[in-house]
Amino acid sequence: MKDILTAPFMVEMIRTTTEMYRHGWDERNGGNVSLLLEEKDVAEYLDLNKVLRTEPVGFKAPELAGKYFLVTGTGKYFKNIQYAPDVNLGLLRITSDGDKAEILWGYSDGGRFTSEFPAHMMSHIARLSADSENHVVMHCHPANLLAMTYVHSLDEKAFTRTLWQMCTECIVVFPDGVNVLPWMLCGTNEIGEATAEKMNTARLVVWSQHGIYGAGKDLDETFGLIETAEKAAEIYMKIAHLPLVNTITDEQLHLLEGRFGVKARDGYLN
Question: Can you give the pLDDT at residue 58?
Fold first, then answer.
């Protein structure tokens, strides 16, 4: 068997979570990431018949039966992942009945996957249904997007349009827009279900007064998706109290659609 710490998916998970912490998105033990893996890739590094222990998922997910995930641990600090990945990360497989997870590697201190695991799994189901290539779900607490939920309308169309108008690249990076949830109790199946419902129509879901969920094909794409939305929110928070002299017009946003071959969410542009 190859050393799992050299696996490309492990190297990229460590690199990405470290960068998320450096950006200030994942203070203390805030935030969580799950990465869907192919069995053939996992088999190069682990004996798939060696199950360390089994943990309940928290809901039934038969759609994910037999699938493998690399997941950040509950109560773990992202700043420590690069130094002790085997403690702060775990690799698991969803059982055939869909309601348990077999730990194959990691959580070596006896820990378990993130408390937001049900929300992650529900979002994976939704995104795989929308785009079979979406393999990442990422949750974090970017300060400006969080701040924006205190001072901006939570109407999804209005929220999306504001972000699109802050940076030329925004409509190119997330033409599907941003969905928004009102404040809900975290760590529950209810917020997981609500997030998954929103994931059916957009890869970004803002949790008001809390943070954001993002989904994408790989860790780089998902990180960049959140990074772009957060940059737009930062610009908004810097100018929201000032008179708006210029903006990116709908006509200009349509020009960007044509130039970059994207289609803005239906009904969001005039």
Answer: 86
**Nearest-5° angle of CA 60, CA 113, CA 74?**
130
Looking only at the bridges linking them, the beta strands covering 100-106 and 211-216 are unpaired
Q: Which residues pair with 71 in a beta bridge?
A: 34, 90
Please check whether the two domains, 17-114 and 116-270, share a CATH topology.
Answer: yes
**Level-2 CATH architecture, domain 116-270:** 3-Layer(aba) Sandwich (3.40)
Instruction: State the pTM of this model.
Output: 0.95
Spatial separation of the C-alpha atoms in residues 266 and 24, rounded to whole Å: 33
Q: Which of 116, 156, 230, 234 is catalytic?
A: 116
187 has a pLDDT exceeding 90: no
Rg (CA), the chain: 19
pLDDT at 1 over 90: no
pLDDT of residue 95: 96
42 class by beta-carbon count within 10 Å (0-12 exposed, 13-18 middle, 19+ buried): buried
Which CATH superfamily is 17-114 part of? Answer: Class II aldolase/adducin N-terminal domain (3.40.225.10)
116 catalytically annotated:
yes
